[in-house]
Design brief:
459 residues; Rossmann fold; 2 domains; five-stranded parallel beta sheet; five-stranded mixed beta sheet
Length: 459
């Protein structure tokens, strides 16, 4: 079948919420290119799995795309020079999420090109008609993805080559291309679907071919009709592709919710249950774009589109940014913060962590920076739980968030794990609907961190 089929019925999942999406700040802003002028910091851990170690010495002149860090581990992803420049001594930097990581400083050249000529134009190249994904060997695709350092760009940062590696014991029948971008404020995936849909479709087909998948479904929420049309048009004439239009709801972009909505399949409970258990692989649209560039053009993951948005930034927009660019330089490029700016998030307001300062580098997993104004960052005092049960009613994973939070507050981590604390995806729905303004998600995050420490100490 060569036709692109659009499923007539809007796809949805049970529970979840409908927060104000506030994408008007940047959804109409085209992708612009930011050329870094200051020093970059490239953390050694930008992915789930084993952290990398530097493969170059300090004061080494490196070229764009040159591998500068790697590790001999299957679940990992190498790091590449994101510009032409000179390396410095390995230092320690904070990364989004609060952890600290060794990092390689990279200083741009005082003279000459920072990046190859025509880099931006090539990144958004729309001439992909001649590419036949099935002409590539599946093992060749997996190898190219691994060498390019690709990870999930939807925020999870799981190494892509691991996800797509064929396993005879766990065959996959469906690939879902995740273009929902349900997190409020963020628009980088939306803009990429509008401005580079052909590369995304080719990347999706390459991923499906590598994993031995015959059915691919493009999934987009119905609040992005222009992206739906652009992706449908780009997929015309390419076999095995469907388009599923999903209800605008949060967290539609979560793997478990998307699989439930589109395929009516239930992924077993985390942390052990995976989409692979129900024959599905989910790939983010930005990841698919990078797959096409890695396999066809042999280009590593060095840049990504970042939405800089919110009422606290002077000029919101979507920017193609070198990994390692400091938050401070990117926000300054957007005109700086406004007088009402109060909080900066690495991501959106539902799942993005607050950053303590702007001396933090953009990593592979950062798809947005939200600068919230005083009004947007309004804070309410936590009051006692009134046992209303709203957190239970709206939890998309059918957990009992308040019981877990109370157990964490009491230091009873075994009780918390008995209520499946580790299965929580930290989407924030519970905290959003809580009338007592209890930061339930933060309690659960803290409980999971503490439980991991206890388990590691017992080993």
């Amino acid at each position: 079948m060569t036709a692109v089929a659009q499923n007539e019925r809007l796809k949805s999942f049970r529970r979840g919420i409908h927060p104000p999406y506030r994408k008007e700040y940047s959804e109409a802003e085209p992708i612009r290119f930011m050329l870094p002028k200051e020093g970059l910091l490239l953390p050694m851990s930008q992915h789930i799995g084993a952290p990398c170690a530097a493969t170059v010495k300090p004061k080494t002149d490196v070229k764009y795309g040159e591998k500068i860090a790697d590790v001999d581990a299957f679940v990992s992803a190498p790091i590449h020079a994101t510009i032409n420049g000179t390396t410095g001594a390995v230092s320690i930097t904070a990364v989004p999420g609060g952890k600290r990581s060794p990092a390689i400083p990279l200083k741009p050249p005082s003279e000459g090109n920072v990046l190859p000529e025509g880099f931006f134009e090539q990144y958004l190249d729309r001439n992909w008609d001649s590419v036949e994904p099935t002409s590539y060997d599946p093992d060749e695709i997996i190898s190219a993805i691994r060498e390019a350092g690709l990870v999930g760009l939807g925020g999870a940062t799981f190494p892509t080559h691991v996800k797509l590696k064929r396993n005879p014991d766990r065959p996959i029948d469906t690939l879902l291309l995740n273009g929902c971008e349900c997190e409020p404020y963020l628009t980088s995936d939306h803009r990429l679907m509008l401005e580079a849909p052909e590369a995304i479709v080719v990347g999706m087909q390459l991923a499906a071919h590598a994993a031995g998948i015959k059915r691919s479904i493009i999934c987009i929420e119905d609040n992005k009709p222009d992206a739906i049309e652009a992706m449908r048009k780009a997929a015309q004439g390419r076999p095995g592709i469907e388009v599923a239009v999903c209800v605008t709801a949060y967290p539609m972009g979560g793997e478990r919710q998307l699989i439930s909505a589109v395929l009516d399949r239930t992924v077993p409970s985390a942390p052990k249950g995976l989409p692979l258990d129900v024959g599905v692989v989910v790939v983010n649209v930005a990841s698919a774009h990078c797959i096409a560039r890695a396999v066809v053009h042999k280009l590593p993951l060095t840049h990504r589109v970042v939405a800089v948005t919110g009422g606290g930034v002077s000029k919101p927009g979507n920017y193609l940014v070198a990994v390692g660019t400091m938050f401070s330089e990117l926000i300054a490029h957007c005109g700086g913060t406004t007088e009402t700016a109060r909080r900066v998030l690495a991501g959106g307001p539902m799942m993005g962590p607050t950053v303590p300062n702007l001396d933090i580098p953009v990593t592979k997993g950062v798809g947005g920076i939200t600068v919230m104004s005083e009004r947007e960052a309004a804070w309410w005092k936590e009051t006692p739980c009134i046992r209303c049960g709203k957190c239970v009613d709206y939890c998309p994973l059918y957990l009992s968030p308040t019981k877990i939070a109370h157990a964490v507050k009491a230091g009873d981590y075994e009780f918390a794990t008995g209520y499946n604390m580790t299965a929580c995806c930290e989407c924030g729905c519970c905290a959003y609907v809580c009338p007592a303004h209890i930061p339930i998600t933060q309690y659960i995050k803290a409980g999971k961190n503490r439980w991991r420490t206890i388990v590691s100490q017992e080993k």
